[in-house]
Design goal:
Largest sheet: 9 strands, mixed
Oligomer: single chain
Helix content: 25-40%
Order of helices and strands: EHHEHHEEEHEEEEH
CATH class: Alpha Beta
Number of strands: 9
Low-confidence stretches: none
CATH architecture: Alpha-Beta Complex
Shape: globular
Number of domains: 1
Strand content: 25-35%
Number of helices: 6
Length: about 220
């Protein structure tokens, strides 16, 4: 009998990802270049909105010892997805998207179940997985669970991209599935830098991912 287990319980560290999914980190600097190079520009009105989100985050941080995941979603992540255009045609945002990933090998037979915080799709193809955590929670601590969600993408022929965010920090992840499943992540972007708003870079990268996905499926 195949056992069903929550992803959050079965996948807690990167060694779990490696053993259950045959998934390893790529050291090839050319593996994940989508977040580098000439990125799309953003409009002045978009910059104003992103500045407002940064200011809002620190306002809430002044009021609370930490900002809960639910509040981070409301004040930062959901507005950010709207500004990025992921809530409008031709995209569809699916909140709390349910998925299951089946694992069957010599060692075990297992069904992992979970819910993605937000999933942007276009014509049923995954554009980007969004995983949100509470402020103060390291975005890298959410990497194993996010990789497990990404392994649930039914479209094996295309790379899967994800953004992990805690309101203050953001990283991007790319995963490909082949004989050897591989992943890599970007540098960490943060709004804690007082000299600039790195949400600009976050939005430019998402625009690049949107353009790549829209080009394939529209």
């Amino acid at each position: 009998m195949i056992q069903a287990t929550a992803i959050s319980k079965a996948i807690t560290k990167l060694s779990d990802v490696r053993s259950k999914f045959n998934l390893s980190r790529s050291d090839d600097p050319q593996f994940f270049t989508e977040w580098l190079g000439e990125l799309p520009e953003i409009k002045d009105r978009e910059k104003l909105e992103l500045d407002r989100l940064k200011k809002r985050y620190f306002y809430y941080l002044e009021q609370e010892e930490s900002i809960s995941e639910g509040t981070v979603n409301i004040i930062i992540i959901h507005p950010l997805l709207d500004i990025m255009g992921l809530c409008d045609p031709p995209f569809i945002i699916r909140g709390e998207a349910y998925l299951k990933v089946e694992i069957e090998n010599k060692a075990e037979s297992l069904v992992l179940q979970g819910r993605i915080d937000a999933l942007a799709v276009i014509d049923q193809f995954w554009v980007v997985v969004i995983e949100a955590k509470e402020s103060g929670f390291s975005v890298f601590n959410a990497l194993p669970q996010t990789l497990a969600y990404m392994m649930g993408n039914p479209h094996l022929e295309k790379p899967t991209f994800a953004m992990i965010a805690n309101g203050e920090d953001y990283i991007f992840v790319k995963l490909t599935r082949a004989a050897t499943n591989q992943y890599a992540f970007s540098k960490k972007f943060t709004i804690a830098n007082p000299q600039t708003n790195e949400l600009y870079d976050v939005m430019r990268i998402v625009k690049r991912l949107i353009n790549l996905s829209a080009g394939d499926h529209t």
